[in-house]
């Protein structure tokens, strides 16, 4: 395996090795990755303390990847691939069968571990009645205005032989709590993914001139193309202070009220972002992001980071501890208190969204510049 093998692939192979499901070919790939380190230091690695093992591992990675020493303040992506699984701080030593000197040292677990979020949402029907989606089995949930609403594997699906039977004033709302997420197939065939503490309100019958929805929080869209009488029907997304108009495209909107601005990131197609108050507009191309914070500003986007949540992992790129902990609070449904001395410090790295909170916090603590104390569902952040 070449030294530039993607880190998430290494993490996947490592997880398979840990679970005992790795094939001989995959095991060879993992061994090849291990062999890319300086073998003249392996014996020394095995004989030293945990702190020295980490220091030596960091130095090996720095030498190979030419990463600036200042980046030791964050947990490095390749180290994240080694430590991500949370099972052993000595993963490098353990992937060699002959290395049996070390014993695994685990981070002490909280008496009541804080688990990650899951598929949870509340559906509000046109008459105001509600259905808790996580408390119902797969299958038909409701028939409302001639539309069948079904649940299948954490996904809500709308279907109807005659969508025109619903009135344009009949709306459904799907909302996720903190610690929840959900996927929805809208009546027009568009697909949306709701992040934690988010919602979408939409009509059961979209108009012929435009398809319009309202959102809060963070939502990823894959908009289906639609036309009437030979004319394309635009899809309009309204959020706090802005309106987005699209025809058929993939994009992400982060419109949480406690974030410093509303961010619209385009992956495919084109969208027009308009500030509701002033009418100021910006046309986005794929790979661009519009940030509404006073005015509409367009930047080159880190699209992978923007949609990481929808793909099942956290991706932090030189983000402040305040920004990271807002994300943590929403997904793990915890309250956060940040010491003034640690505010403004920046971190980066990737990790699965489906690990326990202690795994994420433990990785951040390995930088040596931040520490955490958990009291019930309250996380205290300290230098």
UniProtKB/TrEMBL annotation:
InterPro entries hit by this protein: FecR, FecR_C, Ferrdict_sens_TM
Membrane-crossing segments per the record: 74-93
Residue stretches making up the FecR protein domain: 173-272
Entries under Gene3D superfamilies matching the protein: 2.60.120.1440, 3.55.50.30
Keyword tRNA-binding belongs to the record: no
Alphabetical keyword list: Membrane, Transmembrane, Transmembrane helix
Protein name, per record: Anti-sigma factor
Organism in which the protein naturally occurs: Pedobacter yulinensis
């Amino acid at each position: 395996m070449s030294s530039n093998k993607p880190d998430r692939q290494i993490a996947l192979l490592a997880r398979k090795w840990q679970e005992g499901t790795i094939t001989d070919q995959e095991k060879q790939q993992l061994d090849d990755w291990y062999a890319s380190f300086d073998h003249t230091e392996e014996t020394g690695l095995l004989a030293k303390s945990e702190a020295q093992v980490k220091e030596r591992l960091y130095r090996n990675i720095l030498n190979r990847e030419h990463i600036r020493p200042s980046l030791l303040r964050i947990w490095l992506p390749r180290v994240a691939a080694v430590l991500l699984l949370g099972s052993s701080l000595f993963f490098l030593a353990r992937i060699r069968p002959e290395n049996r000197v070390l014993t695994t040292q685990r981070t002490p677990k909280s008496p009541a571990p804080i688990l990650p979020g899951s598929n949870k949402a509340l559906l509000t029907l046109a008459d105001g009645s509600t259905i808790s989606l996580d408390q119902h089995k797969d299958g038909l949930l409701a028939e409302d205005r001639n539309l069948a609403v079904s649940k299948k594997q954490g996904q809500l699906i709308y279907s109807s032989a005659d969508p025109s039977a619903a009135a344009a004033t009949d709306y459904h709302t799907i909302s996720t709590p903190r610690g929840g997420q959900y996927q929805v197939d809208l009546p027009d065939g568009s697909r949306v993914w709701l992040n934690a503490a988010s919602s979408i309100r939409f009509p059961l019958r979209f108009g012929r001139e435009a398809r319009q929805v309202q959102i809060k929080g963070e939502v990823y869209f894959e908009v289906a193309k639609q036309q009437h009488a030979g004319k394309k029907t635009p899809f309009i997304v309204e959020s706090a202070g802005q309106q987005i108009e699209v025809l058929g495209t993939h994009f992400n909107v982060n419109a949480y009220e406690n974030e410093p601005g509303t961010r619209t990131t385009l992956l495919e197609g084109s969208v027009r972002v308009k500030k509701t108050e002033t009418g100021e507009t910006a046309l986005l191309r794929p790979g661009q992001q519009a940030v509404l914070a006073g005015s509409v500003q367009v930047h080159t986007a880190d699209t992978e980071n923007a949609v990481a949540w929808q793909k099942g992992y956290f991706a932090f790129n030189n983000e402040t501890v305040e920004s990271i902990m807002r994300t943590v609070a929403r997904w793990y449904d915890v309250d956060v208190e940040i010491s003034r001395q640690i505010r403004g410090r920046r971190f980066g790295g990737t990790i699965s969204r489906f690990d326990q909170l202690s795994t994420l916090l433990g990785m951040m603590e390995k930088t040596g510049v931040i520490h955490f104390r958990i009291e019930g569902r309250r996380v205290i952040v300290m230098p």
